[in-house]
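Tokens in:
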């Protein structure tokens, strides 16, 4: 018997909105942690599905975020039901919180946790908290917000934070819970793990591998334009259409695409701090996943290239 999905809830998300979702044959579910390549994978899927850089709508309209509480569930489902193209749906929910349907393909994007954390820290500065509270119905904070710690100090606290991963999905335990669950499913035909660094190193090759895995035939002549449209530079240049339409939550759409590079987190830590990070992750995830995630030994056997 298939286990019921775990319910994940936060101030602005609820994975229960997936229950009863009417899947179609060919649906693509993009499951990522925050700042791990969600929008990048949405763009790649859009380019592969439509076969052109001239997309008919902004990414957030083509690929709705089903879990987000800002829009009523029935409105998001109706939006997806009205779509005639092959659907690709955004979620930050781990796969154990989503119905697994044989008709759908599930893409999980992994990023080095330290790089994800650095990006998450900077992303926090780009959020209009007043607007976010308006949209999610959250009350004003009772206490005066304190100044944020430096990135270095915040990162050390993030590494050490001992929280329930199901209560704090963007924590280090939450990130590794999400990826460990996906890693355990990596041999399933409809689950694909993609590493952020592989997209950075060989975007064209990764896009071709994804097209093959999704059964999408792309003419050779179309590839150069599609790959160019998926680069960080082009997505940042077109941020008004490629960045999430967060209803005014983002202060600056272009700043959503801040740097997109790997290695920033490791550069912030000295040898002892990196060793402590490695010790901490060894308690939270299996060694083969960590080897693949940290790029210690190249790609581990069984990890999907695309």
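Residues out:
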């Amino acid at each position: 018997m298939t286990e019921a999905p775990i319910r994940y809830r936060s101030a602005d998300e609820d994975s229960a909105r997936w229950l009863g979702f009417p899947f179609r044959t060919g649906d693509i579910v993009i499951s990522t942690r925050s700042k791990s390549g969600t929008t990048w994978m949405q763009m790649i899927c859009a380019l592969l599905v439509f076969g052109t850089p001239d997309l008919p709508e902004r990414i957030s309209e083509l690929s709705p975020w089903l879990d987000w509480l800002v829009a009523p569930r029935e409105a998001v489902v109706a939006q997806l039901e009205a779509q005639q193209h092959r659907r690709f749906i955004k979620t930050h929910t781990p796969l154990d919180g989503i119905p697994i349907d044989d008709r759908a393909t599930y893409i999980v994007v992994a990023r080095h946790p330290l790089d994800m954390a650095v990006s998450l820290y900077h992303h926090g500065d780009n959020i209009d908290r007043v607007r976010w509270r308006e949209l999610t119905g959250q009350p004003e904070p009772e206490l005066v917000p304190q100044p944020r710690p430096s990135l270095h100090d915040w990162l050390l606290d993030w590494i050490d934070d001992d929280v329930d991963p199901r209560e704090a999905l963007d924590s280090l335990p939450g990130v590794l819970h999400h990826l460990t669950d996906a890693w355990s499913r990596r041999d399933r035909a409809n689950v694909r793990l993609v590493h952020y660094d592989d997209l950075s190193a060989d975007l064209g090759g990764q896009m071709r591998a994804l097209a093959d895995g999704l059964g999408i035939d792309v003419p050779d002549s179309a590839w150069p334009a599609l790959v160019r449209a998926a680069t960080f530079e082009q997505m940042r240049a077109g941020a008004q259409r490629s960045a999430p339409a967060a209803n005014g939550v983002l202060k600056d759409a272009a700043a959503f695409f801040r740097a997109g590079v790997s290695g920033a987190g490791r550069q912030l830590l000295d040898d002892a701090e990196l060793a402590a990070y490695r010790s901490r992750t060894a308690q939270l995830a299996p060694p083969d996943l960590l080897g693949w995630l940290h790029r210690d030994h190249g790609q581990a056997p069984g990890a999907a290239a695309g």
